[in-house]
Write a structure and sequence with these properties.
This protein has helices spanning about 35-55, 65-70, and strands at about 10, 25-30, 85-90, 100-105. With about 110 residues, the protein is α+β, with helices and mostly antiparallel strands.
Length: about 110
Amino acid sequence: MINRHEMAGYCLHRMNKHENYQTQLKLYSGPGAVEHFFDAIFSEADEISQIISVQRPMLPLTVDERIAYDNATVCQNCKTTFWVVNLKCRHHNHVSGRYIFFRLISIVIWH
């Protein structure tokens, strides 16, 4: 005897701290659930790509953010020291424009 498993349905919901980018619950149960799910997930991927393709400028830093950035000597992400080829840059949320943290940007020098 061979066991056969078929997807009967799915539930899809985009959660995000930006409420305007959250979606209503998408629930499906019925024939062709796998195909229906893939259509829904690829559509979701297209919508998310459109959202993150918008490059909003970074909002001005607060006084505390500016002080922390100016005093930073290592990347908050990878803990690498900033220097001549490992430059400090400001990382921001491209949806809200808000500053997130400072991070490393490496420069490659070709000879």
